[in-house]
């Protein structure tokens, strides 16, 4: 039944190519091989955006942190595994120089914040 649904949802060109496959599992594995790696360039672009983002002084801290959180979420959806502590560190690294004192306090006091708590603290 699953095989029939998969075939029915395909374009005619793919349908003809996959008709000879006997199981839905084989079809899905083949489709994964054909289309599965397309998120790699998107993941790389998202990672580059995250690593090159630096807060501009005129930007509100809320907008900036939400932008970083959005990039982190996008990477997570694309399969990147970044632990919560590293996510907070990434946000801190993108802040403008006016937040140096906050970063110093964060490190000196060994604060343990989630991204939402960090946003509220900033």
Question: What this model shows, in words?
Answer:
This protein is an all-alpha fold and 122 residues long. The protein has two domains: 2-37, no CATH class; 53-121, no CATH class. 69% of the residues lie in helices and 0% in strands. The chain has helices spanning 2-8, 12-18, 24-35, 39-52, 61-77, 84-94, 100-108, 115-121. Helix 4 (39-52) packs antiparallel against helix 5 and helix 5 crosses helix 6. The relative contact order is 0.10. The mean pLDDT is 87.
Give a summary of the structure in a few sentences:
The protein has helices at 2-8, 12-18, 24-35, 39-52, 61-77, 84-94, 100-108, 115-121. It is mostly helical.
List the helices and strands and how they pair.
Elements: H1 2-8, H2 12-18, H3 24-35, H4 39-52, H5 61-77, H6 84-94, H7 100-108, H8 115-121
Helix pairs in contact: 4-5, 5-6
